[in-house]
Amino acid sequence: MNLNLIRNFSIIAHIDHGKSTLADRILEITDALSDREMSSQVLDSMDLEQERGITIKAASVRLNYRAASGDSYIFNLIDTPGHVDFHYEVSRSLTACEGALLIVDATQGIQAQTLANAYLALEQDLVIIPVINKIDLPSADVDRVIAQIVEVLGLDGAECLAVSAKRGTGVPEVLEAIIERIPPPGGDPAASPRALIIDSWFDSYQGAVPLIRVFDGTIKKGDHIRFMATGGEYQVLSTAAFLPHLAELDSLGPGEVGLLTAAIREVSDTRVGDTVTSAASPASEPIPGFKEPMAMVYSGLYAADSGDFENLRTALDKLHLNDSAFTFEPETSGALGFGFRCGFLGLLHMDIIRERLEREYDLTLIFTAPTVVYRVVMNSGEAIEIDSPARLPELSRVDHIEEPYILGTILVPSDYVGPVMKLCQEKRGTQRTMKYLDTQTVELIYELPFSEILFDFHDKLKSVTRGYGSFDYEHLAFRPSEVVKLDILLNDQPVDAFSSIIHKEKAYYHGRALTGRMRKLIPRQMFEVSIQAAIGNRVIARETIKALRKDVTAKCYGGDITRKRKLLEKQKEGKKRMKSIGTVEVPQEAFMAVLEVNKEGS
User: Fold this and answer.
1) How far apart are CA 184 and CA 229, in angstroms?
2) Whole-prediction pTM value?
3) Which of 534, 547, 550, 577 fits as disulfide partner to 528, beta carbons 3.0 to 4.6 Å?
């Protein structure tokens, strides 16, 4: 295949700036689908993607386009996730391309994820084609957006293309610009094969299926291949590409994007960013940039009905087949019974897994409050990482605890700078820079503890900026911090599901709020229930649920008062005994109260 007639590109944008809509128009113009087959957000195949308007899984489609010059080109469009949780997958998808279309909303201008994705593309030395979308809207301000692109990204304003992806205006010019500006791929067909894994998924009949971009050599049916990071060796059973319907190919050569099947049993053997090469004559070095995906947020996951435990285990096994970045291991809670400790790339990743479990497997679930990974440095100098308050060692053995920090980029209209700065200070943030992108938009960069943005930072940012603020972040480093373990005790018994690791300054307020909320949610028992918040042996907050009182004197009609007193004393003794052996009934709403208190009090 003539490499000069191949173009590999991706589309990057902030959420809701029209990425999937532009992809739909490109599919229409290249006649990839008939009118009957066409629908909105074709590449976003999951129900969740279509409902939320986000891309969760990377997708690839191979398109045939006849240019104005008369030549027929092959376009490999690699659609990328846009959320920060999938930052690594985006970087691998961009590595597979030579160029990128950067979509900017003509009504909103540059947003936080626009910046993050653009910088990622620039780091990969990709050719960026700026595309200003939604020019058909009355509030569109194309000149302002062009000025922002020139000022912030340093791109040539004359190269900006104005389009309306919804109406198809200007899209043909975008396709011609792809041919003119994005260079064709390189590669040596005679060299040892080297291919980058962009994504992978599990098929019930074919096993794990990796989506690859070939850089050198050729991969065809019958070849023996090796994954350089995992060391697994397999025989290729077939090669194919999405056109966008799946079509088998004889082989995949330099510059081509497609998939291969090789009876691979586990998705964990086909890790995103790994290099595929020949088992007989392997390449001397892999494609750089591979790293293991690392879970950043952990939460306990339990079935609301203990009888659903095996169903939950089966559901997690199936989800893990398609998402190797999601991890889980069994754990036991005294309050909730048997469950799993799950690791996620971030809060969106956690929300998607929760919603898929409830929808696809019809499960009712209880999630404990999410926590970040803390690094505990022991007196001996040993450093261990913990993902649960229950795993925190005794404080007498701990020298100090470090918590993860992130570098947050916030873009807001200049009218809301004050409230945003106040919000960041409340979250223990440290301002690094503040820059005016134009007279109306300000870029604030803050260093923030990751635990402080877990629950409601994004919601509060949208609230104080009336929906105009945008936020993106990258992980920075672990830093020493004054954090403590806050335990919640019911009748002097600690409940591990309510425990949390929290900054010392906020522990008192959090404990007061949580005990107060739980007093309202836990129903009255036949005995008095004490709810305490404690740091170590020191109780910092307490609430009491009064006992239900049965009217034992109701059957006494007149008579001596001593008879009534005798019955009341007998009841009192019984209540003492009940308190010592009774178990407190805790409703599901009480476990959700931990999340609510975090949202209100943080």
Assistant:
1) 28
2) 0.73
3) 547
